[in-house]
Amino acid sequence: MASNLKVIIDNAQIKLKIPSGTRMLVRRSCHAALQQEGYDKQAVISVTFADNEMLGSFDGMRVSNFEAPELIAIPENNGEENLGRIILSVERVLELTRVYNRPFEMGIVFASIHGVLNLLGQFYLDQETKDAQMKKEALVMSQMGYSPLSDFETGRRR
């Protein structure tokens, strides 16, 4: 499953150097999230590395106030193989990983998985949907070898 996925990555920001291997982590995360969800159609996901300012220009596209502050996912609703676009602020990911004392790679994995679930129509609309999605995210992270934050495992607010 998810072997028919193409992930196109663009680095539109210049504030931070993208660490070696980050693009591969994003691709692996997208594949793992789609596989966990049983998605087996041909698909294309576009991921743009942005900074906080760039991400802010897309704020009007957020589905809810519960959305992850480090990314915005813009699903395609035309029935084509293009699932949509994830705009990911590497600047914000770095800030959050410092706050939670986690490696940058773990933040990128989480954001990528979260973005894919958003593209599939899963959003933090209320605490119940947030808890359910966080459990899915934690499961995919664990399968990829990342120990999720205890908040993800228990479904508590972060």
Produce a short descriptive summary.
The chain is of the alpha/beta class. The chain has helices at 22-36, 52-56, 90-99, 104-119, 127-143, 150-154; strands spanning 5-11, 43-50, 71-75, 82-89.
What does it look like?
This protein is of the alpha/beta class. The chain is 43% helix and 18% strand. The protein has six helices and four strands, in the order βαβαββαααα. Helix 4 (104-119) packs across helix 5. The chain is globular, with a radius of gyration of 14 Å. Residues 151-158 have low confidence and may be disordered.
Question: What is the H/E order?
Answer: EHEHEEHHHH
Mean pLDDT over the full residue set:
86
Number of discrete domains = 1
Count helical runs.
6
Class inferred from helices and paired strands: alpha/beta
Question: What is the CATH topology?
Answer: Collagenase (Catalytic Domain)
Instruction: State which percent range the strand residues make up.
Output: 15-25%
How many strands in all? 4
Relative helix content:
40-55%
Radius of gyration: 14 Å
Largest sheet: 4 strands, mixed
The CATH homologous superfamily: Metalloproteases ("zincins"), catalytic domain
Q: List segments where confidence is low: pLDDT < 50 over at least 5 consecutive residues.
A: 151-158
What is the terminal-to-terminal distance? 31 Å
* CATH C-level class: Alpha Beta
Query: Which strand order spans the largest sheet, edge to edge or round the barrel?
Result: 1-2-4-3
* Spatial shape: globular
CATH architecture, by name, is: 3-Layer(aba) Sandwich
